[in-house]
């Protein structure tokens, strides 16, 4: 029997390293995207990283460094000489450098700042002062600024002279002598215009901008909404201080989505470190507080069951339907909460839409409740009573189950849509009010409804 083996690019790179075929390695790496090269570094043994990194051309090395995870960057910084580190930093955009510095320990940060120019240190310190998750913390100050009095020819010359080190040149920004943002213009407009046409005649004065303290999630939403490649950032006096590019907005969207998913699963968010690189103790710390909280809150369910022990003793068959009722209620509430949380994060709804949301969810809940009750009634009678031959399952028991199911679904969907909206109104992240909390609350409500209906109809 023949066996086949697949030789991956990673295997090829490691084989060439062992064989010391550095010229071949360099030729291969120069044809690859920095993102793919960074992925190779993250799989390499530590001692091989510096050697392979030194084979990269200067421009590719800087782009690759930006794409690496924190641990790989940290290891390489310790391995590189001051001269090599300075070369990397010189080719990095300022916002990427700030992002890296925020994740590094103090001793590494000091070394990075020592290799930065005085102007870079000043810019870095300015960006680090902005609150985390604000527009100012993710913006770059490397942009092309034009004056309204320039001609198209003069503007293009300026772009050629200064654009090499800028984050983007596709969209340029027009500011007056006081640095106040007054317009935007694209490179396409400049190239297609006559040489002597003034920038003031070509620029678009209807500028959409964000403030330095605007939440980064809102910035990402604006970029997505208007299909921007970049959005300008201004201070309180409308002075242009930087831009946020679409690549940074995509990173924000990914981080926010990851954070929401973790909160919805009752996990303390950790969006900076890949799953396999988070230690067991760190993972435990992020999960155990929420599990303890939910376990304690779930004791209310036990208290409710204990308070209706006499009813359960009179009709033990009721116990068999508790899991179905609780699960259905929890699932119904989760459906609504996840839908509302997503709509809030996309700014499709606001708190003022609460009545509309409740009215919609109530109608959906009634339809779901009726459909589920009919299906449950058929199941209880046909399966539990006839097929399984359980005489304790009477029509009245089926009626209790079906009524409880319908009411639970309605209540669950109302709770599921209201809690995230109230959290949003109070300034909390709506994702906190997701499945675990909704399920715990709905479980308690469904049991109370179940036993109250049972005692009323079955006279327990």
From TrEMBL:
Coiled coil: none annotated. Residues 139-201, 203-259 form the CBS domain. Keywords: CBS domain, Cell membrane, Magnesium, Membrane, Metal-binding, Transmembrane, Transmembrane helix, Transport. The keyword Metal-binding applies. InterPro entries: CBS_dom, CBS_dom_sf, Mg_transptr_MgtE_intracell_dom, MgtE_N_sf, MgtE_transporter, SLC41_membr_dom, SLC41_membr_dom_sf. The chain crosses the membrane at residues 290-308, 364-383, 395-422, 434-458. Its main location: membrane. It comes from the Bacteria. It is found in: Cell membrane; Membrane. It is a multi-pass membrane protein. PROSITE patterns: CBS (PS51371). The keyword Transmembrane helix applies. Acts as a magnesium transporter. Belongs to the SLC41A transporter family. Homodimer. This is Magnesium transporter MgtE. It comes from Ruminococcoides intestinihominis.
């Amino acid at each position: 029997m023949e066996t086949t083996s697949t030789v991956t690019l990673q295997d090829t790179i490691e084989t060439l390293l062992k064989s010391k075929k550095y010229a071949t390695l360099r030729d291969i790496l120069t044809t690859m995207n920095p993102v793919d090269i960074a992925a190779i570094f993250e799989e390499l043994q530590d001692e091989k990283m510096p050697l392979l990194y030194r084979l990269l051309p200067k421009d590719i090395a800087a782009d690759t460094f930006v794409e690496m995870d924190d641990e790989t960057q940290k290891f390489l910084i310790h391995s590189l000489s001051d001269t090599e580190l300075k070369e990397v930093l010189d080719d990095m955009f300022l916002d990427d450098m700030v992002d890296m510095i925020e994740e590094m320990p103090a001793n590494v940060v000091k070394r990075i700042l020592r290799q930065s120019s005085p102007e870079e240190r000043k810019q870095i310190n300015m960006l680090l002062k902005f609150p985390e998750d604000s527009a100012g913390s993710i913006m770059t100050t490397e942009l092309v600024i034009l004056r309204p009095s320039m001609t198209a020819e003069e503007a293009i010359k300026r772009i050629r002279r200064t654009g090499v080190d800028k984050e983007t040149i596709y969209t340029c920004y027009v500011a007056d002598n006081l640095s106040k943002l007054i317009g935007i213009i694209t490179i396409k407009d400049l190239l297609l215009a006559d040489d002597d046409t003034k920038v003031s005649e070509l620029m678009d004065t209807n500028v959409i901008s964000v403030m330095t303290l605007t939440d980064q999630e809102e910035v990402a939403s604006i970029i997505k909404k208007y299909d921007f490649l970049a959005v300008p950032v201004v201070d309180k006096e409308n002075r242009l201080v930087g831009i946020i590019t679409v690549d940074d907005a995509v990173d924000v969207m990914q981080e926010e989505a990851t954070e929401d998913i973790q909160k919805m699963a009752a996990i303390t968010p950790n969006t900076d470190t890949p799953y396999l690189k988070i230690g067991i103790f760190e993972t435990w710390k992020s999960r155990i507080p929420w599990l303890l909280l939910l376990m304690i809150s779930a004791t209310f369910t036990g208290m409710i069951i204990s308070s209706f022990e006499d009813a359960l003793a009179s009709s033990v068959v009721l116990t068999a339907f508790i899991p179905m009722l609780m699960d259905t209620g929890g699932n119904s509430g989760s459906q609504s909460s996840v839908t509302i949380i997503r709509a809030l994060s996309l700014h499709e709804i606001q708190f003022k839409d609460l009545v509309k949301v409740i009215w919609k969810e109530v109608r959906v809940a009634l339809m779901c409740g009726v459909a589920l009750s009919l299906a449950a009634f058929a199941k209880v009678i046909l399966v539990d009573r006839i097929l399984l031959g359980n005489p304790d399952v009477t029509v009245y028991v089926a009626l209790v189950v079906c009524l409880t199911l319908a009411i639970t679904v309605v209540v669950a969907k109302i709770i599921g849509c209201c809690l995230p909206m109230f959290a949003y109104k109070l300034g909390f992240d709506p994702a906190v009010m997701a499945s675990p909390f909704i399920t715990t609350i709905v479980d308690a409500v469904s049991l109370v409804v179940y036993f109250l209906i049972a005692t009323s109809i079955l006279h327990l």
